Amino acid sequence: MMRRLNPAHWQWPLPAVFAWAACWALFRALLGEGVALSWALGLSSALGVACSLWGPTWWRRLLIAGGFPLSLVVSLSTLGAESLPAWAWLLPLALLLLVYPVNAWRDAPLFPTPPNALEELPAHAPLPLGAHVLDAGCGLGHGLQALRQAYPQAELHGMEWSWPLRLLCGLRCPWARVTRGDIWRANWSTYDMVYVFQRPESMARAVAKANADMRPGTWLVSLEFEATSAAPVAHWRGPGGKMVWLYQVPLPLQPGEIA
């Protein structure tokens, strides 16, 4: 029942339509209460950016977040927006960049880990009590929650470049050590396991960093996307339907690959 009520699980483009309608409803309500036009634009655009988390892909998130300000531009003549200061039109872009910084666009903007997706992981990669586990690019904390279910006795760490997402993740996962940082510049050497849910294009980089930073015998885990340059120790389809790829450091290269 809760899944049906979550717009993230609705058929596209229903999440976008719902988000746009909600933004317009908020915008009209704020104007009706006498709120300044620039503030109404900013708050309604912020709602659109928050709703963009429902999108399963980067482009759909852009459509959800950008739908309201774009439709507002088209409607300028009927809304009396001539009183809107020029700088106010930068608010939607600024809000989007806060959540999805430019230097993070090459990675996965936000891929939530499904519940129970990692429940089989301890059977393939047992960890000692108090092991340090990093969710590299933790977003809103879905991966940390799945890791906590798999390794309740581990010390969990999350790293996220977007400071709004880092803040929200810290609130949702107070039992984890969540920091803001660039996962590619961070030192992975202190972790017994690093979990990533990135993009296919990022996996070669993750393999190279794991081999460069991590200690022999430690683990790299990827959800959904295979590191085609390395040979996995194991792989299986999790309860959420996504593949789990498990690699152990040093990651052996596939035949024909050059280190």
Automatic annotation (TrEMBL):
Q: Print the keywords alphabetically.
A: Membrane, Methyltransferase, S-adenosyl-L-methionine, Transferase, Transmembrane, Transmembrane helix
Which PROSITE patterns does the protein's record reference? PROKAR_LIPOPROTEIN (PS51257)
Matching InterPro entries: FAM173A/B (IPR026170), SAM-dependent_MTases_sf (IPR029063)
Task: State which Enzyme Commission number(s) the record gives.
Answer: 2.1.-.-
Gene3D superfamilies assigned:
Vaccinia Virus protein VP39
Annotated GO biological processes are: methylation
Answer yes or no on keyword Secreted: no
Protein name, entry field: Class I SAM-dependent methyltransferase
Q: Name one GO molecular function term.
A: methyltransferase activity
- TM annotation in the entry: 12-31, 37-55, 62-80, 86-105
Source organism of this protein record: Rhodoferax potami
Domain of life the protein comes from? Bacteria
